[in-house]
Structure to design on (166 residues):
């Protein structure tokens, strides 16, 4: 009986090891086939990328040779401090606390700007305006000049234009 049992166990072990090898090799074959397909697809993508022809874009210049670099945000605001709020303004800071807006306004006034603080009730935000103008082009030029005056101040590099809604 021991001999039969040992013979049966040996046969089971032999079958178990041979079946694992066959599934492992099938797995290995499928993996290598998928890897080759992936490499072929990558090579095709790379070939298509290098063979594409690029057509240069012809820039157009407006009549006044000036293109503002960003759009204008429209908001309803009311003047809190300062004088002479016009239609277009260069906004250089936005705060939830009025004291912070007043501090920035004082700093800008020391630098020679006619700074103002306005309040946007919809957003509950105080906006600090460096300068205010009647036309968009004037305001865009002033915004760009403001950014170039303070190249190392990342907060001022985000200056934008505000159109005051009545």
């Amino acid at each position: 009986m021991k001999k039969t049992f040992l013979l049966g166990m040996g046969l089971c072990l032999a079958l178990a090891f041979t079946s694992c090898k066959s599934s492992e090799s099938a797995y290995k074959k499928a993996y290598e086939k998928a890897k080759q397909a992936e490499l072929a697809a990558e090579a095709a993508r790379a070939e298509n990328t290098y063979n594409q022809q690029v057509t240069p874009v012809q820039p157009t210049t407006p009549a006044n040779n000036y293109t503002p670099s960003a759009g204008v945000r429209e908001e309803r605001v009311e003047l809190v401090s300062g004088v002479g709020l016009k239609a277009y303004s260069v906004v250089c800071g936005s705060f939830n606390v009025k004291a912070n807006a007043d501090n920035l306004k004082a700093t800008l006034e020391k630098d020679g700007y006619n700074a103002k603080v306005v309040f946007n009730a919809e957003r509950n935000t105080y906006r600090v305006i460096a300068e205010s103008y009647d036309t968009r082009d004037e305001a865009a030029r002033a915004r760009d000049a403001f950014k170039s005056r303070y190249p190392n101040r990342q907060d001022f590099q985000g200056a934008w234009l505000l159109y005051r809604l009545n």
Remarks:
- Residues 61-67 have pLDDT under 50 and may be disordered.
- Residues 94 and 130 are 12 Å apart (CA to CA).
